[in-house]
């Protein structure tokens, strides 16, 4: 069960949550979730919180369940919003799909983690000297107090490559390529944010994520094609 499930508020009665309470209850599983994302999903008709007479949003348990479905479908299956909306209209939120994050699959993401440096090394089965080497070549950010699932995935992948003779010093070109791709994606997505518009910022974040996934898919396809040529 995802960590956030234990933090969901009691659904008895007609209790409604503020946007801050919703973000707090989901922070363990979605640490980067922001107001702008919720505003964007609302503008797309994926969640429909009630409004108080003063205009404040209030979320029901059903709203939170729909939100969890949307976020997990995006993260773990890379479903576009159009597909998510169609699925919700046809099937609603059922228990099987709501727990999508717990079901393994070819595109599933690592479960959220929060590790200190020693914990990261232990979890990845490497020495801390290996972490220092990854930092030296820019593959792991320096100065972090805690590490998440992305950093754990980097360390494990780098460890597996090192076992085959490709050490961090050999991977600088890969890091440089990723930095250039990230810069390109941000430059394309940034104009969509339109300053302080929260909905537009959420749209830009989703757009950048979708571009990133397309870039990863293309990179994998090109690499496979090139390997077949050798």
TrEMBL record:
Pfam families: MerR_1. Keywords: DNA-binding. It comes from Brachybacterium sacelli. The keyword DNA-binding applies. PROSITE patterns: HTH_MERR_2 (PS50937). The keyword DNA-binding applies. Residues 38-91 form the HTH merR-type domain. SUPFAM superfamilies: Putative DNA-binding domain. GO terms for molecular function: DNA binding. This is DNA-binding transcriptional MerR regulator. InterPro entries: DNA-bd_dom_put_sf (IPR009061), MerR-type_HTH_dom (IPR000551), MerR_fam (IPR047057). CDD domains: HTH_MerR-like. It comes from the Bacteria. SMART domains: HTH_MERR (SM00422).
